[in-house]
Amino acid sequence: MSANVHTSRFSLLFAWAVLGLFIAGNFLSIIGSWTGPILGVWFVSTQKPRRGFLWLLAFGFIPNLLFGWRGFSLTGPVAALNDLGLLLLTTVLGILPLTFHRLVSPRLPGFAATLPFPLAAMGLLALTQSLHLGAQHPVNFLTFVISWLAAILVWLWNRESPSTKLFFGGLVVFGLSVDALRLNGFAFAVSWPASPIFAWICLDAALLLGLWALFHPLKDQPWAERAEALARLQSPFTSSKLQLQLAGEQTQQALVSLSGERFPIRNGIPAFVQADDLTGDNGKYNHLYETIGGFYNDIQRVYTPLKGVDLREYFLSYMRLLEVKPGDSVLETSVGTGLNFKYLPHGVKLSGLDLSPEMLANCQANLRRWRLQADLYLGNAENLPFADNSFDVVFHVGGINFFNDRAKAIREMIRVACPGSLLLIADETEEHVKSVYEKHPGGLYRNRPAPVAAPIDLVPAAMQQVHLEVLRDGMFYALTFRKPPAVGPAAHGPV
């Protein structure tokens, strides 16, 4: 059976038009003056603060050095070093508002999360001008407006608000209007001067926001309050029951067993990974996800419209196969950034496990934006840290094609699922891997020992209602099967 996702001509045209504007912004400064801040705010939101700062430093400093070194003083090495230091300083000051936004914005409630970047951009620009650093750009109200609009758009984008398209359409009209006025010489209309006092007020306001965020760190539900989640946990290696060990700060908490095993809880996520879990294909493909984790959401959200595919239909094509009702406990193995959680009914109890810390960090960020709560675990899907019959619904989407031991991962899903549960395994077909993934520049998907295939032959014989469905014009498969109502070894059967 084959099921295809409906395409949208409007989404296709809109997506390519937006992409064209951002490409044009790289070559036309008149467009780049308002698409550049959008890209900057978006980029830092996808990265950990230190990594984002270093990347932006490289993006800003290296091109300026390559194309601007001829302007350095040639009177001596000291003068040249002074010029180099000045270039580095102005680059750092230029990216500080973005880094500041990345640190502070996630800790602010609601629409206030859009304020750190415009306030810091306006304030630091005024500071740069007062110190006579770099090129002297006018400090005007338009600087604040463009910066704020960039932050608002990225805020809406990250929240996946339905008004994002409408807002972006308004932003395009605004940007083109500004550019038209500039081209026609109406400088008064686009450079209405902001009072120097306003610029310094912006800087002071940014500092106050920073202080507020410092004393309001991001907090998830303490593990001491997760009695139901703690009750189902066991060592993935010895099956011993686990207990929460409290030792001062939350970052020092751990799960321990009577046999002496200790699993740390880092940033609210228990870690069950050992060195052996990152060998073979598991390690190779985990490295890829660690690299693209920050971009994974947006790869999905940009790729589908560019193909003319409705994003909601894209996910519901397989998620609608699940049997989920409010109050159910749901586990997704290889949860990634949690995108599938948005398409589950409200009122379910969510749990997710993944082998990539980067993907889980982005999953945490997504859950906060979507106001969802889930228990997240760092672990290997081939060794689940849960007791038998723990979850009403268990599913896996993406990743199993390249597991070290697919059969063991399937047996583990069955083990932790309640009797009578319908399980789902979905992933890309060989056709998709060859047409898309094999073109990946890293070459991870080339020279595979065998083509990927739906693991229907690895489903134990005792499973009921085994059904394989091919989706998206043959690019994706969805395999469902039901765990028998009977409890015991017969429910798992031979592989």
Describe this entry's structure for a reader.
By secondary structure, the chain is α/β, with parallel strands linked by helices. It has three domains: 2-214, no CATH class; 222-267; 272-491, Rossmann fold (3-Layer(aba) Sandwich). The chain has 16 helices and twelve strands. It has an eight-stranded mixed beta sheet, sandwiched between helices. The longest helix is centred in the first third of the chain and has 28 residues, at 77-104. The radius of gyration is 26 Å and the shape is globular. Mean pLDDT is 83; it is low at 490-495.
Please give a quick description of this structure:
The protein has helices at 9-25, 29-45, 49-68, 77-104, 116-130, 141-159, 164-183, 187-190, 196-214, 227-232, 280-292, 296-306, 311-319, 357-370, 406-416, 430-435; strands spanning 2-3, 242-245, 254-257, 262-266, 269-270, 329-333, 349-354, 374-378, 393-397, 422-428, 464-471, 476-482. It has 495 residues and is of the alpha/beta class. It has three domains: 2-214, no CATH class; 222-267; 272-491, Vaccinia Virus protein VP39 (Rossmann fold), CATH 3.40.50.
